[in-house]
Amino acid sequence: MLKVVKTDTYAIMFDQSTGEEIMSGINGHEDPFSLRYPSLMDIGIMGHCQNDCYFCYQGEKQEPNMKLDDFKKIIDQSGEVNQIALGGRGDPNKHENFEEIIDYAVVNGIIPNYTTSGIDLTDTEVEVSKMCGAVAVSDYGRDFTYDALNKFIDAGIKTNIHQVLSKYTFEKSSKILLNVDVWEGKFDRNKLNAIIFLLFKPQGRGKNLNDHVLDKQQIKDFRYLTKTATDLPFKIGMDSCMVNMIKQVDSLSSEERIYMDTCEGARMSTYISPNMLLMPCSFGCRDDWGVDINETPIREAWNSELFELFRSKLSQKDDVCPFGF
């Protein structure tokens, strides 16, 4: 099904079955630098996590999960949103209202996606996940990782791997791009949809892990490997934070600029914390960058001074992180 969002200056066409989104300026206008409303929302439905990962960017904060009624309030204001990514502090599939959350998004014409560690994934959660556009499993390289991958793949769900890209995972990531089966056959790579590389940034519990940060040569090498990777049985992708780094060491071709973008925070996407603060992105998950949408409509918060400040920094230099990463 094709969903179309149209304004006087731009149009967005979103294929709900494939996830392909095409955005274009219309009526003589250039492609938009920012939208009048986000097309993607990262919604932190989880307020706490028991996994205790030493590098977690969400930090030590523990709070209640987002209430179902609050989630519905967000969706009820989101007619121009095409997709949501469910996240927060913990595995979204462990939210007490997981099925209702997924169902409410779908009923309202919004495609839900989420990332999980895969720990204790149940058959019921897999069945509910069939309503999602895609799911991603974080690569911990553990038995629960492969168990989750196999369950999702066997259920016919579009399945991705999220691979954190740091100095300590660089060798493994390089081998993946060289078409080496680093997982040694623990799942069928040919049935995987994509590997998504996520740039490690020192924040939260990982704020002092500066030795994990990629150096410039590794960024250049990663760039080369992505350009020369061939015959992979899956697609490859990366977050916009990694695109920022690549653009700092190499220019993007005209073709790449069509499907690769630098930071989209406060331009195309936004993050909502479990306690209902609207922020430019989840790496700015701190109160001084949040607008309380219990008190302020999302559209008004999207056009607030905080968001305009974030956008203005990107308009001056699009390959930097306004948060300083």
List the helices and strands and how they pair.
Blueprint (H helix, E strand, L loop, with lengths): L1 E5 L3 E6 L5 E5 L14 E7 L21 H9 L6 E6 L9 H10 L3 E6 L6 H7 L4 E5 L4 H12 L4 E7 L4 H8 L16 E6 L16 H13 L6 E4 L1 H10 L6 H4 L9 E4 L4 E3 L11 E2 L5 H5 L2 H12 L9
Helix pairs in contact: 1-2, 5-6
Description:
The chain folds into 2 domains: 1-32, no CATH class; 33-316, TIM Barrel, CATH 3.20.20.70. The protein has helices spanning 68-76, 98-107, 123-129, 143-154, 170-177, 216-228, 240-249, 256-259, 298-302, 305-316; strands spanning 2-6, 10-15, 21-25, 40-46, 83-88, 111-116, 134-138, 159-165, 194-199, 235-238, 269-272, 277-279, 291-292. 28% of the residues lie in helices and 20% in strands. Strands 10-9-8-7-6-5-4-11-12-13 form a 10-stranded mixed beta sheet. Strands 1-2-3 form a 3-stranded antiparallel beta sheet, with no helix packed on it. The model has no long low-confidence stretch (mean pLDDT 93). With 325 residues, it is of the alpha/beta class. Helix 3 links the parallel strand 6 (111-116) and strand 7 (134-138).
